[in-house]
Design a protein that fits this description.
Distance between the termini: 71 Å
Structural class: mainly beta
Strand content: over 45%
Helix content: 10-25%
Radius of gyration: 32 Å
Length: 812
């Protein structure tokens, strides 16, 4: 006998010959739909030896005996027993059928609900079981997302019946039986350091039919990483977790099954919102292991059906006997309104955690606010990388999808169509190495009237190091041209560090020095500029440098020189050293300044050439200091202007969203109106001619345009959105929003201005009610709002204190 065989025999004898013991594996599916069944309990009869199927329905374990019977059990399905015989490796695939009888309504009698005892233990232990509570870790993940349609399994498995269908149905079944509509894969590496430092890098990304995959970067962020938070995020919507601190008062828990495997007991507990409890809740099953009363598996979906049906699963494993860690996450979607030959489109996303390491040597210096970023060359990785991370090779259907859709994508230039869709959000339409700025095409305000223009900006096809742009516009009411340009040099994208030089010959709202905060894209532009009726012409040359200094603190330093011509008929008078009063509407200004943006806890996503803000738990702070310097570049004004702002939305579970936006400004010196502040009034109603207006968030809905000006002020805007918590009907879910705004201000040296608004020295107050989402039109929903003005600035004639308006919101 060869030496290597003798060694193998010796090892087998010493260690109990595991290679010769039976290995049982297989897959459990639904007998009717052929879909895999996750978390089916498989126990060797008469023992506690067993396991559960994974999220894909697969199982694998070693029986205690070579000849034995196995029991397959699953809540809502008929129990099955199967035997195996022999010493080899056995494959046992099982198809389970649902129980024929419908589960009756469960009535909980007075006394202790055993399910609640288990849930209380799980809630009490969630801090130690939460994978993101107290342990640093690093892991890799393989993620896959497919889209197709749900085929009737009875028809699919009966060729004779399928042949009787119309040709379009037969063609659809033939197409989707061979391939998916869309397939995306990604490989990511994530590192985490408690309490909240996280960074995930996409090291490989592939999308069928596309070369540029940035647009689908967030496709892996489909659900919360675990169920241990107070809320669970599914596609950006927050639901109360069944393990939240107050969950027992909101959810009904029922103990459905108890399984004994090895030394542990696994409790299957179903949950759903209690009757007459109005909140965004889930329903499903929790599999809780008696070892630390930790989650072992989760099946959940929103309690109320919306325009998108969602079903998620999570599977946890005990790692190093220390921490139950989510190792597989599945998300299933059905889009009832997206029909393919009268069948709804479906989607399925899967994530598999791999190469998990607990307590790696991580430090805070390794992390920035960027929590998700696209790695270099992620869209062009070789097959060897993909094969390393896939649990199983791509099946024939998936391979066909890549081959077919890639061919279609090339023929139909789908990349260009995706870029066009992206352009609608960014406002940039790529045309080779330059992009057309959609936002500059057409604008409207009460000063310029219709403003027609064009703007071009280079993109990363020309250079990833710099970009530059130029624009031209013409106002048909003020009959003036506007133009400008800039060049921007990117220094370090991960910290959003850049420097810019810009020139503008344009107009700006008179006294419009409140913070103009950057928007996230073309579709999120504010409509407040529509109401502006006074503007100053400004010719400005400015240099800027921006960057995130540390954590979430960003700094923008600027220096500029401007020539300002104020709006028609305005003049500012000042006294010279010779005690002579001069009146002028032209001002030379030289400024230096700093703008600070502090967003503690804010998370960011970094694509190839863009930064996306995901928000944070804490308020967002802005502070700006501007110093006007005289006798430089012909400037004549010496002043300081201080501005501050804070904003925060409190997402209160089961109550709604409460938002606060406060802004303040101060100019101590006697300065012309272009350097002061205009309160943002948006009331254009004249009840002899016009009874309805348009709502504009964070403005004064009842205040007339240019009614108030200040050299120092503070404004506060409060909103509480009950969302859909007050009325929830199948086709009628209005959002009720309470609004209240207040303003206090002071105007120094009013005699220095020939035209100036009032000052709200005693305060300005208004409140109102909006009812949004009354009428849906494609991606837009319409509503109504009524607002009332009261307090010291209350007007004579009751109707004059009311503002009736239409609200409009975007729904995607």
């Amino acid at each position: 006998m060869p030496l290597k065989h003798l060694v193998a025999l010796f090892i087998a004898l010493v260690y109990g010959c595991p290679a010769l013991q039976a290995q049982l594996s297989g897959r459990v599916t639904d007998a009717d739909t052929k879909e895999p069944l996750a978390f089916v309990a498989i126990v060797e009869k008469g023992t506690t030896n067993g396991c559960y199927t994974d999220i894909d329905g697969y199982y694998h374990f070693q029986p205690a005996n070579t000849t034995t019977v196995f029991v397959f059990s699953y809540v809502g399905y008929q129990e099955i027993e199967r035997g195996i015989y022999g010493n080899g490796n056995d494959t046992l695939n099982i198809a389970m059928r649902k129980n024929a009888n419908t589960t009756a309504e469960v009535i909980i009698l007075p006394g202790i609900n055993p399910a609640e005892r288990i849930i209380k233990a799980a809630i009490n232990n969630k801090k130690q079981n939460d994978p993101e509570s107290d342990i640093a870790f690093i892991y890799d993940s393989y993620n896959k997302l497919v889209f197709g349609t749900k085929l009737d399994s009875v028809l699919l498995n009966n060729p004779d019946s399928l042949a009787l269908q119309d040709t379009s149905t037969i063609a659809m079944y033939d197409f989707f039986n061979k391939q998916y509509l869309f397939l995306m894969e990604s490989i990511a590496t994530r590192k985490y350091l408690p309490p909240n430092h996280s960074e995930e890098t996409i090291i490989a990304n592939r999308v069928s039919g596309l070369k540029n995959t940035d647009f689908f970067l967030l496709a892996t962020q489909l659900q919360s990483f675990s169920f241990y938070g107070e809320t669970v995020q599914i596609l950006g919507t927050s639901y109360m977790s069944p393990l939240a601190d107050g969950a027992i008062k909101k959810y009904l828990f029922i103990l459905e099954d108890t399984t004994f495997i090895d030394n542990d007991t696994v409790f299957t507990v179903s949950f759903r919102p209690r009757k007459n409890k109005k909140f965004d809740g889930l329903k499903g099953q929790l599999f809780i292991n008696s070892n630390k009363y930790a989650l072992q598996n989760v099946i959940a979906e929103p309690n109320e059906t919306t325009s998108l049906y969602i079903h998620i699963q999570q599977q946890y494993e005990l790692v190093d006997q220390r921490k139950w860690f989510p190792m597989q996450l599945n998300s299933y979607f059905t889009f009832p309104r997206a029909l393919i030959n009268e069948q709804p489109m479906t989607g399925e996303g899967k994530s598999y955690i791999k190469n998990l390491k607990l307590d790696p040597p991580l430090t805070r210096k390794e992390f920035t606010p960027v929590t998700l970023l696209m790695g270099k060359n992620a869209g062009n990785q070789p097959d060897s990388i993909w094969n390393k991370y896939r649990d199983r090779p791509l099946d024939t259907k998936e391979t066909t999808t890549y081959h077919t859709v890639d061919s279609i994508g090339k023929a139909e230039n789908i990349d260009a169509q995706i870029k066009l869709l992206e352009s609608l959000t960014t406002g940039l339409i790529p045309m080779g190495p330059v992009s057309f700025e959609l936002a500059r095409l057409l604008r409207f305000n009460n000063y310029e009237g219709y403003r027609l223009g064009a703007g071009l900006r280079t993109n990363n096809r020309l250079s990833e190091t710099f970009d530059m742009g130029a624009y031209y516009a013409y106002g048909f009411k003020d009959k003036h041209s506007k133009y400008g340009g800039d060049i921007k040099l990117h220094l370090y994208k991960k910290r959003n560090a850049w420097t810019k030089l810009l020139y503008e010959n344009d107009v700006m709202e008179t006294a419009g020095n409140q913070f103009t905060k950057p928007t996230d894209g073309f579709l999120s532009q504010s409509i407040y500029p529509f109401f502006v009726s006074r503007m100053d012409r400004r010719e400005k040359l400015e240099a800027q440098i921006n960057g995130r200094l540390m954590g979430n603190l960003s700094v923008l330093a600027f220096a500029n020189t401007q020539m300002v011509k104020s709006f028609d008929h305005y003049q500012h008078n000042f006294t010279t050293e010779e005690n002579v009063k001069l009146f002028t509407s032209n001002f030379n200004i030289t400024e230096i300044g700093l703008t600070l943006r502090y967003a503690p806890g804010e998370k960011l996503v970094r694509t190839t050439n863009k930064e996306i803000r995901l928000g944070g738990f804490y308020p967002l702070f802005w502070f700006r200091v501007t110093k006007g310097i005289d006798n430089i570049f012909g400037s004549t004004l010496d002043y300081i202007r201080l501005d501050a702002s804070v904003e925060k939305t409190f997402r209160i579970l089961n109550v709604g969203d409460f938002s606060i936006n406060a802004i303040a400004g101060l100019v101590p010196q006697d300065m012309p109106l272009p350097l002061l502040y205009n309160a943002k009034g948006t009331n254009t109603l004249d009840y002899n001619k016009k009874w309805i207006g348009i709502t504009v968030p964070n403005t004064f809905e009842t205040m007339r345009i240019n009614e108030f000006n200040h050299s120092q002020f503070i404004a506060v805007h409060l909103r509480h959105n009950f969302k859909q918590l007050l009325i929830k009907r199948k086709n009628f879910k209005p959002n009720f929003v309470l609004v209240s705004s207040m303003l206090w201000g002071k105007m120094n040296n009013t005699a220095s201005h020939n035209i100036v608004g009032k000052a709200a020295t005693k305060g300005y107050y208004e409140s109102g009610l909006q009812i949004n989402n009354l009428l849906k039109v494609n991606f837009t929903s319409l509503g109504v709002g009524v607002f009332y003005r009261y307090g010291p600035e209350h007007l004579s004639g009751t109707i004059n204190n009311f503002a009736f308006k239409i609200s409009s919101t975007l729904n995607f």
